[in-house]
Amino acid sequence: MDYSIFHEDLRDLLLFNEVILKPFQHESISTLPTMSFRTLCILMLHDGLTLNELAKLLCVSKQRCSVLVKRLEEDSYVTYKQDEKDKRKMRIYINEEASNMINDQLESYAMILEDLMKKAPNKKQVKLLKKVHELHLCIKECEEDL
What we know:
single chain; 2 domains; two-stranded antiparallel ribbon; elongated
């Protein structure tokens, strides 16, 4: 399979990130620490993970993940519940308030990106919209395979 187009698209996304998004880094996407935000985002997509499963998705040790989740639990963003099929397992669930907060923060960031895109020429806007949509569909498809 020829990955040259994929490589080009990734390179362009990285370039876009460096040139367009980096100046907005002071406008944090979240009021939460980065790893806490990532943890909640993953739980929004895959609610009810075990600590081991979450640690793998975060690419951190189980111990580091335990500290992250404990802090989120103390702040009432997540709860542990016993697995109904396997009583030895505890599953982690994001609460509705935390889910709404994350959605609001993602929406704010999406608005920033939308405003940036509106400044681009129409032809580039159409091209970017198509590529973002294709990337989104591809990611959704890959998630289903996990």
